[in-house]
Specification:
Elements lengths: L24 H8 L1 H5 L1 H22 L5 E4 L4 H12 L5 E7 L5 H14 L2 E6 L2 H15 L3 H18 L4 E4 L3 H5 L17 H9 L2 H5 L14 E4 H4 L4 H12 L16 H12 L5 H9 L5 H15 L4 H11 L4 H9 L1
Parallel strand pairs: 1-2, 1-4, 2-3, 4-5
Helix pairs in contact: 4-12, 7-9, 13-15, 14-15
The chain binds zinc ion (ZN).
Zinc ion binds next to helix 1.
Amino acid sequence: MDKCIKCGLPGHYQGITLNENHVCNYCEFYETHKETFSNFDALEKQFEEEVENAKKKAAERGAKYDCITGLSGGKDGAYITYQLQHKYGLRVLTYTLDNGFSTDFGRKNVEILLDKLDVEHIWVNVRDSTLRQFYSASLKLIKNFCSVCFHFCHYYSHLLASQYEIPLIVNGRTRSQILQSADQIRGIEPFHIARDLKSFEYQMFKRLVDKLEHNSCIDFMPDHEITSLSYFMYHDISDEEKIDFLEKNLGWIKPESKVPHADCWAHPVAEYYSIKKNGYPVRTGELAEMVREGKMELHQAKREYLEDWNTYQDLDPQLEQRFMNRICVKNRLAAANAVSG
Ligand SMILES: [Zn+2]
């Protein structure tokens, strides 16, 4: 099978091109800009400047908060919130979006965190019919529904920011998530910082955003100028350091389960569709990016890739049924009943 000799990305990965030396376009792009991506002194300084600007703007507007950030119950949101409060002296508003797939684990963790962080917080519950409409349309069109959840997170963070006149949103996207499909500087931090919802969504969805611009369901709120920063693009910190820090400073208890995305019960469904549609699990691009940055050995990435394949290539029919009921797509069982009845 053809793949990149550096990062191990398979030859059928989305948007990949391999050069004559079997090195992919993502590795080439990373190598070209490696100095910028790894100069953390300069990156932290850039982040600090943005923070100072936000403080000034919030003061001018008489806003109650300087920035807003999401808490899903995981370690990233907790770590970021603490740092924004204590290292950067920001007045932080937090929010949690109930995407229709939240687990008891996630909800309980948010409550524990709120108690420890002593921060203001808003639960956002999206109208059920809107959720179903977006999830089923997205599944039908692109066999993917995680993008809907991302969109709601982006949309509500911008909506809350505009309502409270908050100038800055800080998000917990990892470097791997940001750089996994970066092959040009457009829409990539720290080269381009998003100042409104549309340019932020471009960072994740690329040209899909242009296509959706005139869709009546999507409101990009073009009149609201709000800066979005991905905390981990500007700070060099490993998961182990994060957990260690949280244990010491927040009395954080590490979740027992090592399952990724333990805050979403539909995650195995997303993985299954990714394997069926794309021919690789969800984390493939992120694992390759960690190899590219020297944070993971190629053989370890390969092992985790195979583990994901084995875990997710078959979908528990009961889980699929639960998922279909949740998003209200006409399901196989109903179709079968209709035929036999
Ligand atoms: Zn590569």
